[in-house]
Predict the 3D structure of the following.
Amino acid sequence: MRWLPAIYVAVILVIEPITPVQWPVSFLLIALPVVAAYAHGPATVAAITVFAVGFEAILAGTPCCAGRSVGYVGDRHYVATYISTTLVGVLGAILAAHRMRRERTLATVRSVAETAQRVLLRPVPHRLGQVCVETLYLSAAAEARIGGDLYEAVPTAYGVRLLIGDVRGKGLVAVETAATMLGAFREAAHDEPDLAAVARRVERSMTRRAAQLPGSEVAERFVTAVFAEIPDKAPVVRIVNCGHPPPLLIGRDGTVTELNSTDPSLPLNLGVLFGDEYHADERPFRPGDLLLLYTDGVTETRDRTGEFYPLPERVRQWAALPPRELLDHLHEDLLAYSGARLYDDTAALAACRLPSDTGGRCETADGDCPAE
C-alpha cells in the first residue's frame, strides 16, 4: 500500500504517451492524494498533492510526452484540474489523519484485548506433577485476540484437572461467560473430590450468574465443555463430557481413540432447564499416552470443497510427537487445510503422562516439558 502512489503515477506515465492528445490522461492525477491517504500520513499526502499539481502542469505542456504545447498549461480545463487536485489533497490529508487516529485506537484496543486474554487464559505451566501440558489458541480474526473458547489446567490433591470449553456466541457476552466459568472451575477443582461434582458446581455458578441477566440471554449463554482428571498414582483418566466434541486418546503405540462418553451430559447452564446430572467415565491412561482436548473450531474447519477437517486421521500421523510439536503441527495443518481462512476460534490442550524414566515422547531434548 505504501508503494501504491508510485505505481499509480507509473501507470499514468505509461498510458499518457499512447493516448490521443484530446484525451488528457493526466487528469487521473486528481485521485493521487486519496490513493496516498490509504498508507501515508497527512504531511506526506500534502507533499504528494503538491507533486501531483506540478506533474499535471508538466504533462499539460510537454510536447515530447503528451504532444501538447506549453500553452495548454494555463488552459481553463487544466486550471480546474489543479484546483480539484488541491481540494482532493486537502480531503486526503484529513482522511489520512482520521485513518491514523483510528489505527492508534485499534492498537490500544488490541493491547487491552491481549491483556484481558492473558488474564482470562493465563499461561498453563508446561509440567504439572507427572503430566506435561501444552496449549494452542487460534483466533478466527487477526484483530480478535479474545473470544469464547477457554482452557485451564490445575494441579490439585486429586491429580491434574483439565478443562476445555466453548461458549455459545461471540463478543463481550462470551468473554464474560468464559471468565465466570474459569473462575468457578479454578475454585471447584481444589475443593471437590469427585470430578462430576466439579462439573456440577461449575454449572451452579453459571446458573447463578445467568439468573442476573435480563430476558432471553439466560437460555442463550451455555457452554459445551470437557472436564478431565489425571490422578497422580492411578494410570487412568476420568472425563465428564458436557455436550463437547470427544477428546482423543493417543496411545504410546500410535493408536488414536475417540473417548466418547457412555452417558453424555448437557452443556453447562442448561441444567436449570433439564437437570444437572453428570457422569464421569474412566479410561486407561498409561505413561507415554497423550490426551488431546479441543474445541469444535478444529473439527469444523473446512477446506475449499467444504469438507470438514479429519482430526483423528491427521493426528494419527503425529502420534509419536511430544505435545508441543503435535500442537504446532496441528496449527500449521489447520491453516493449510483451510487456506488460512479460519471462521471460528480454535483452542486445544494436549496432556501427556510422563513415563517413569527420563525419556519418552512427552519430553524432548530441547526442553519440551522441563523437569521438576
